[in-house]
Amino acid sequence: QVQLVESGGGLVQAGGSLRLSCAASRRTFSRYAMGWFRQAPGKEREFVAAIIWGGGRTYYADSAKGRFTISKNNAKNTVYLQMNSLKPEDTAVYYCAAESSARSSGLGSAEGYDYWGQGTQVTVSS
């Protein structure tokens, strides 16, 4: 069993920055990609960003392009989400996820991911 542990959430003013981290408990497990999703109260979980673990190619939701950066550190077995120019509408619980193999559902779909973290709260005040 693989555990994903997120950290780095918190309260920040609009325009500020946060960096989320997600560490995997096992170094060697089948991992095609890692992603970040978020869920605001009363809303469905939505895709934020993903990174192909082997090649490093990245993908972003339109809401994240130009403001968020996903990256990884293979040696630390960790994926990051750098969030800049935060807006109140970015307020949500952010989840890290791992997809063990490429799925037809695509990286933007939560159903393709096999492992999930417990989530970390990000609150952006206006």
Task: Describe it.
With 126 residues, this protein is mostly beta strands. It is 0% helix and 48% strand. The chain is built from no helices and eleven strands. The chain has strands spanning 4-7, 10-13, 18-24, 33-39, 46-52, 58-60, 68-73, 78-83, 92-99, 115-116, 120-125. The strands form two sheets. Strands 2, 4, 5, 6, 9, 10 and 11 form a seven-stranded mixed β-sheet that branches. The chain has a four-stranded antiparallel β-sheet with strand order 1-3-8-7, with no helix packed on it. The chain is globular. The relative contact order is 0.31. The model has no long low-confidence stretch (mean pLDDT 94).
Topology:
Blueprint: E1 4-7, E2 10-13, E3 18-24, E4 33-39, E5 46-52, E6 58-60, E7 68-73, E8 78-83, E9 92-99, E10 115-116, E11 120-125
Parallel strand pairs: 2-11
Antiparallel strand pairs: 1-3, 3-8, 4-5, 4-9, 5-6, 7-8, 9-10, 9-11
Which key terms come to mind for this protein?
126 residues; mainly beta; 4-stranded antiparallel sheet; 0% helix; 48% strand
Number of strands: 11
Q: Share of helix among residues?
A: under 10%
- Average pLDDT works out at 94
Overall SS class:
mainly beta
Percent range for β-strand residues: over 45%
- Please write the string of helix (H) and strand (E) elements: EEEEEEEEEEE
Note poorly predicted spans: none
- How many angstroms separate the termini? 40 Å
Any idea what the radius of gyration is? 14 Å
Q: What is the 3D shape? A: globular
Main β-sheet: number of strands, strand sense, barrel status?
7 strands, mixed
Helix count?
0
